[in-house]
Amino acid sequence: VREWFQLALERHGNELPKAVHVDVKAMDLDDLRVLANQITAVTHEPLPILGKEKLVDGKTGRPFDQPVTVGILHMLKLAHLVEDKVHARSTGPYSLVTQQPLGGKAQFGGQRFGEMEVWALEAYGAAHTLQEMLTVKSDDVQGRVKTYESIVKSERIEEPGVPASFRVLVKELQSLGLAVEAVTDSGDVIRFGKEDDKRRNSDNRRAWTGGMTDFR
Fold it and tell me: 187 Cβ partners below 8 Å, 6+ apart?
């Protein structure tokens, strides 16, 4: 609004009374309202409440359809540096609940592969890449240990297993009193319960022990 006063003084000049020619930067809001009424009485131009001004197109000589903001332009630079953003990871910390990699550079996390990214790979029919991203690269605990071991030994990578997030879903369904069973292509029934937890924990201990020995 103060810039509008300066423009009004420069535009109309001697048309305005001498009382108007003051330093508007040192005036408070009430004095500015009085001064605005004096300028409006002489120029018949209302004071814009948003700091906007009617400007004229220099090519056509006609005013623009809408008022244009007039004021001081401030330029701000975002301090986003590449060295602060670049990040890479092969293995690292995992979530205790879902066994999925943590997120963010600060936690040395992995790259997020969300629901829409899954749709993109489904649209391209990249089944093997999608299976890899959702199992051994994510929360297939036994699968990622065996895959890492196979890569170190230059052996053939085994088939992925069941993701830990699926087991979390099974636990939530079991808490509702629902029994969950998985049926394979060969007709075998996989049950999820206490016996499965004991067997899986035993397999995990053997896998991690062998992995630490081989990776050392």
Answer: none
Alpha-carbon span 63 to 54, nearest angstrom:
7
pTM for the structure as a whole: 0.48
Residue 124 and residue 112: Cα distance in Å, rounded?
19
* 101, 89 contact by CB (below 8 A): yes
The H or E element that residue 32 is part of is helix 29-43
For the chain, what are the domain ranges? 2-69, 92-215
In CATH, 92-215 is 3.90.1800.10: yes
CA–CA gap between residue 1 and residue 99 (Å, rounded): 57
Q: What would the pLDDT profile of 99-118 be if each residue is shown by its tens digit? A: 888 888 888 888 888 899 99
Six-digit token string for 163: 């993701």
